[in-house]
Amino acid sequence: MTSQDRSPAINNQVQHSVEVASNTDRDLDIPPGCQIRSNVSLKGLTTWKVGGAAQWYLEPRTIAEAQSGLAWARLNDLLITIIGAGSNLLISDRGLAGLVICTRHLRHVTTQFDRETQSIVADAGKMFASIAWQAARRGWGGMEWAAGIPGTLGGAVVMNAGAHEHSTQKILVSADVLNLDGSIETLTALDLGYSYRTSNLQRSSQIVISAKFKLQAASDPGEIQARTYRDLEKRHSKQPYDRPSCGSVFRNPTPEYAAALIENVGLKGFKIGDAEVSTLHANFIINSKDATASDIRELIYYVQSQVKARYSIELEPEVKMLGEF
pTM (2 decimals)? Predict the structure, then answer.
């Protein structure tokens, strides 16, 4: 999609945007009750702590407000970009054109934990790790691995988040999505076409607003909690949670592991600007101080080039790059 393609589409992968000026380039009427703002910095909304400003920004708290924002963007022929907690996301220093909708406070359903069926229904804006801990306290198995996932429930559904050989697709029953025309649709896990760290939602114009998961009751609830703690401690001991990052940068090229390939070419600690390959886990790129999005992207490309030169393996990024670099 180019900057000339102004069709009202959802931006799910790479958006070629224009640099955002300090004021907007045209006067658009904001719909009543819809808190759309202009020229909003996105830096603090990503876990890498980099990125420029949104030309227009909306953080809806209700479905009605989200529907109003979508209708407004369609009316004004604006590109639409959806973000959640900002993990697994690299936003250009030049910002994003069009309307950016952040779903982290969007509420569609009341969080439900059904004791009879061990099922969970929750909003897309809920932190996935929080849901995992609430399940663990009830002694329900199947989400122990998610206790350290840094993103939202919606992001986990879209990206098929996973860890320790587990993934979202194994526990998802269905997801409610908001279509571009404002209608709501329920999709099953089969509808989402899951594969490793991806789903059909990454290529669609639909916004996850809530999801339902099915877990299992454990004969020993205490063991579920203990396993959840062990999985979290394992992640913390091997991953640099003390520095801004996006989580794992590259997908593992089966049967190899991206971290091992990067370490073997001697790139642990390698820096471009203040973007650095973590010395703790080579598949993490950290913002060591004041990195820019361009620093990070250049380092991603450099890592890819070195691994390809040594192993003839093309590392595929998990991270979504948004905007013009």
Answer: 0.86
